[in-house]
Amino acid sequence: MTPRRQNRASARVALGGSMGALSLLLLFLSGVFPFATYALPAAAGVALMPVVVEIGYRWALAVYGGISILGLLFAPDKEAALLFVFFLGYYPIIKARIERLSSRLLQWLCKLGLLNVAIALVYFIMVRLLGLTAVIEEFGQMGTGLIAGLWVLANVTGVVYDIALTRVISMYVHWFRPRFLKRLG
Questions:
Q1: Contacts of 1 (CB under 8 A, 6+ apart)
Q2: Virtual CA dihedral for 131, 138, 86, 40, nearest 10 degrees?
C-alpha cells in the first residue's frame, strides 16, 4: 500500500472513530441530563454527517452500527439509545438518499412515514421487550387527546429537525469545510 493510500485509510478510520466517540459520548450524557432524552441522540446523529460527507455512506452506516450496539449496551438512558438506533442515528445518513426522490411530496411522505414508524417501534420495544410499564401508566394518565397532541408535536419536531439538518449540512460543506479542512488536503 502506498503511503498516500495508507494516509487516506488512516484518515478515514480516525474521522469515523472520532465522530463515533463523540456520538457515543452524547448518548452517555443522556444519563447525566435526563431532560435531554431527545436532544442528545439527535446531536449524536448530527455528529455522523461529516462521516457521510468526507468518507461516504457505507462508512457512516458502519459507524452508526457500532454506536448503536454500544449505545444499547452501555447508555444509561435506554429511551435515548432506542431513539438513536431507530431514527435519529441513521436519519442524517439516509436523508440525502430520500431527497433524491423526484417529488417533494414523496420525499416528505417517506420522511414522515419513517419518523412515525420509528416512534411506534421505539415505544413498542420499550413497553413490550424492555418491560418499561411506567410508560403505559404515564400514557394512560394523559388521555387520548394529549397523546394525539404529542404525536403531532413529534411530527412537527421531525420537520424542524429535517430543516435544521439541511442547514447544518450546508454550513458544514460551504463554510466549515473550505475554511478548516482545506489545509488537511
A1: 9
A2: -120
- Helix 57-74 crosses helix 91-98 at what angle (to 10 degrees)? 150
DSSP per residue, 14-40: HHHHHHHHHHHHHHHHTTT-GGGTTHH
Give residue-wise pLDDT tens across range 80-127.
999 999 999 999 999 999 999 999 999 999 999 999 999 889 888 877
3-184: CATH class: mainly alpha
Question: Cα dihedral sign for 147, 148, 153, 159?
Answer: positive
**% the chain with pLDDT above 70:** 91
Q: Please list, in sequence order, all residues whose beta carbon lies within 8 angstroms of the beta carbon of residue 168, skipping any fewer than 6 positions away.
A: 46, 49
pTM for this prediction: 0.86
Set of cell numbers at residue 151: 404525536
Helices and strands (H and E) in the chain: how many:
9, 0
